[in-house]
Write a sequence for this structure.
């Protein structure tokens, strides 16, 4: 047994056990180093989403959770979601429909950047990074699926998370786009040295991630 | 004991949370405390205890006095026939219309008319119906003299016929849209069209197919609204004053006139009458429940026989007529209020006045100002408080996973099942006993009892349906719960929130009895002023007040539809609700 080292950087899932009504749903002990990807495979109902909700901090009280979540050596298990600095991307882009593309990105920017012009500059720069120059004032509903996926990724990265969770984020995209977006997400995450936890049921996702892989059992 | 305020400390966070956790209780309290207190305030004088008037011992006197009042049995019977008649007729129309027409373009058209129709206050609709059906009303004018031979209005007692038929017509016109809306909401939770199609493919006629396979599930969901209609129709006062019989009036109307009598001793009898009204409604609700069970049983036995009932053409068209009549009655009634308010000289049996004039509006513009202000003040406060309580409750429900169960949902309807007169009489008595001045604030508290359930029922669906992943995303980017609420959730729900506010405001505008009784006659809103004009019979003035009342309820509705379209004109995803 490897002794957990609390000083390691990255995302550590330590002796995590999620039970529902006495039955073990997820039992996981893993460490994801910065810039690495851990892929969790499993059919629907195998507790993938519950695992993510535990790491992000939004677990429903019905679940019985033991173990710890460490981020860069700090125990974040008892922190509220907004203090954890763990980013997440869902299958749907979840762009806020009432905000412009620029305002969506600005929502992610840390409040520490107070100057309006500076924030604006960061938004413009971020849009250029994902090839969407001049999209600041656009309505999210007018963008294509691929464009929206890129904005969603960039919005989350602007919030400067220290780990990234991916909840089947590519399964909503058509085949041609999927490879492109997947590559973009992995590249940007690696550049930022983020530990990434990818949950999927798509073999191609797992292959592309090139990292460690854990299969969750079928329930029952 | 006061403690120094420590910002950012963990304990403060926990105190906040424990307070928020009790939000549902606070909301239920806002509805139940006035009702319970009012019922107690009605009950005690009814059994002789009324210290402010020197009654300090219990006695059966008030109840005996009530029973000896010559009109008692007639008034009680009228309450039952009106309530049951209105509920049966409205329910039959709604069921048959939905069974026969759901899924057609005609049905969607009717659906779109519902919200505007619901916002029309009861009193205005009743005046409209009166203007339509009276011997000198539009219906008679259109038919005269060529069909009827009348050159002067015939001497018939319509409205205010002794059997309460005109009153029932006026109530049906308002209750059909309400029940239809509730039915449509319930249909969303059942696989209605699929089920009906399967039954149809087994050879059942369209109407009967719906009634056997969909209705049982739908009725389960609209049962409480049906009970609310029954309780309301049995004890309504403003519609009864406008359309109901006069001597004797309905029990509730009689109680109100005793309450406003200069002879304070009559308040014992009024309290006994309010208590009797409560008993009547309770008893009738029990009978209705028994009738539900036996009709359900009989229908199941009949369905077992497998009759296909394919020939339902006549029934379908009757259903259409049944649904169209109330809708048209309200719309044409409003039109006739409009014509009267601008009418110059208008002789019988001309269909339209000889001339139109602003005179009536100009003469009464100054009389309208104060009631408008009062109406808006009370409505805005009642809606603001109801909306805040509702949002806090729904947030608490989500953050702490408190599920308002179906039983608790029943609690939301409870104030609507208690006849208004039963607890409002008591509230006035309590005000008298305690010496508190019954002013605008007290009236607002009473309005909240009725506004809150509608606001909650209207916003709860969209609020709970909101995708919680938006909150997760927001939190993952570091936004706290407050920021997520104000910047993401509430703006995204702007449309439903405004509609809920508009519904609540319309409910408040329409309240007659809470305003009259709790305000002790001193709080004057558009509704109390309009109803007070009923006995005078000046149709031009009635037209002005009833229309203004309708506008007060309808304008926020239009704003609720227009504002999101304006704010979100560049946000396609939010434009189609």
């Amino acid at each position: 047994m490897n002794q957990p080292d609390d000083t390691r950087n990255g995302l550590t899932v330590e002796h995590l056990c999620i039970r529902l009504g006495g039955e073990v749903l997820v039992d996981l002990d893993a460490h994801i180093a910065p810039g690495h990807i851990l892929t969790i495979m499993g059919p629907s109902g195998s507790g993938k989403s519950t695992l993510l909700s535990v790491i992000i901090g939004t677990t429903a009280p019905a679940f019985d959770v033991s173990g710890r979540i460490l981020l860069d050596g700090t125990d974040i298990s008892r922190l509220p979601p907004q203090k954890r600095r763990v980013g997440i991307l869902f299958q749907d882009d979840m762009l806020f429909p009432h905000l412009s593309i620029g305002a969506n990105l600005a929502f992610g920017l840390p409040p520490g950047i107070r100057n309006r012009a500076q924030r604006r500059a960061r938004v413009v720069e971020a849009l250029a990074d994902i090839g969407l120059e001049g999209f600041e004032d656009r309505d999210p509903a007018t963008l294509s699926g691929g464009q929206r996926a890129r904005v969603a990724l960039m919005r989350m990265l602007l919030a400067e998370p220290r780990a990234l969770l991916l909840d089947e984020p590519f399964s909503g995209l058509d085949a041609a786009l999927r490879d492109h977006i997947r590559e973009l997400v992995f590249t940007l995450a690696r550049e930022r040295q983020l530990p990434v936890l990818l949950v999927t049921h798509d073999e191609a996702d797992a292959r592309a991630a090139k990292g460690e892989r854990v299969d969750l059992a079928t329930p029952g | 004991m006061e403690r120094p305020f420590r910002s950012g400390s963990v304990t403060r966070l926990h105190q906040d949370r424990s307070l928020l956790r009790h939000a549902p209780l606070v909301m239920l309290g806002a509805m139940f405390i006035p009702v319970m207190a009012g019922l107690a305030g009605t009950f005690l004088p009814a059994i002789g205890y009324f210290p402010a008037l020197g009654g300090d011992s219990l006695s059966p006197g008030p109840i005996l006095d009530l029973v000896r009042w010559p009109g008692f049995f007639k008034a009680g019977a009228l309450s039952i026939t009106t309530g049951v008649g209105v509920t049966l007729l409205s329910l039959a129309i709604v069921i048959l219309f939905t069974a026969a027409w759901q899924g057609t373009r005609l049905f969607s058209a009717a659906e779109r008319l519902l919200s505007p129709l619901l916002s029309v206050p009861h009193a205005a609709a009743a005046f409209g119906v009166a203007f339509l059906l009276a011997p000198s009303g539009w219906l008679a004018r259109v038919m005269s003299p060529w069909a009827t031979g009348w050159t002067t209005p015939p001497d018939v007692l319509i409205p205010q016929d002794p059997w309460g038929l005109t009153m029932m017509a006026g109530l049906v016109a308002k209750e059909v849209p309400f029940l239809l809306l509730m039915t449509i909401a319930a249909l969303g939770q059942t696989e209605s069209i699929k089920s009906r199609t399967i039954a149809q493919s087994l050879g059942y006629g369209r109407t009967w197919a719906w009634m056997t396979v969909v209705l049982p599930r739908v009725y389960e969901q609209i049962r409480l609204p049906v009970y609310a209609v029954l309780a309301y129709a049995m004890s309504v006062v403003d519609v009864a004053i406008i359309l109901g019989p006069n001597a004797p009036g309905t029990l509730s109307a009689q109680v109100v006139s005793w309450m406003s009598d200069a002879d304070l001793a009559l308040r014992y009898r009024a309290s006994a009458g309010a208590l009797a009204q409560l008993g009547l409604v309770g008893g009738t609700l029990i009978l209705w429940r028994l009738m539900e069970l036996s009709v359900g049983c009989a229908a199941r036995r009949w369905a077992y026989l497998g009759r296909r009932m394919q020939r339902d053409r006549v029934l379908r068209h009757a259903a259409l007529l049944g649904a169209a009549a109330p809708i048209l009655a309200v719309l044409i009634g409003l039109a006739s209020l409009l014509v009267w308010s601008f009418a110059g000289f208008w002789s019988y049996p001309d269909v339209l006045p000889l001339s139109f004039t602003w005179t009536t509006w100009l003469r009464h513009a100054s009389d309208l100002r104060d009631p408008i202000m009062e109406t808006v003040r009370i409505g805005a406060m009642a809606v603001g408080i109801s909306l805040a309580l509702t949002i806090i409750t729904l947030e608490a429900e989500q953050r702490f996973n408190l599920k308002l169960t179906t039983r608790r949902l029943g609690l939301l309807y409870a104030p609507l099942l208690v006849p208004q007169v039963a607890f409002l009489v008591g509230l006035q008595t309590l005000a008298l006993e305690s010496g508190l001045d019954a002013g605008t604030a007290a009236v607002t508290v009473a309005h909240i009892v009725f506004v809150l359930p509608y606001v909650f029922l209207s916003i709860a669906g969209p609020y709970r349906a909101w995708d919680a992943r938006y909150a997760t995303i927001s939190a993952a980017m570091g936004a706290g719960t407050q920021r997520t609420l104000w910047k993401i959730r509430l703006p995204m729900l702007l449309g439903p929130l405004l509609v809920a506010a508009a519904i609540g405001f319309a409910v408040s505008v329409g309240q007659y009895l809470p305003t009259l009784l709790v305000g002790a006659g001193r709080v004057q809103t558009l509704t109390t002023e309009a109803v007070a004009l009923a006995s005078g019979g000046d149709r031009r003035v009635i037209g002005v007040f009833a229309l203004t009342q309708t506008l007060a309820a309808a304008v926020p509705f239009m704003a609720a539809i227009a504002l999101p379209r304006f704010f979100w004109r560049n946000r396609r995803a939010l434009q189609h609700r």
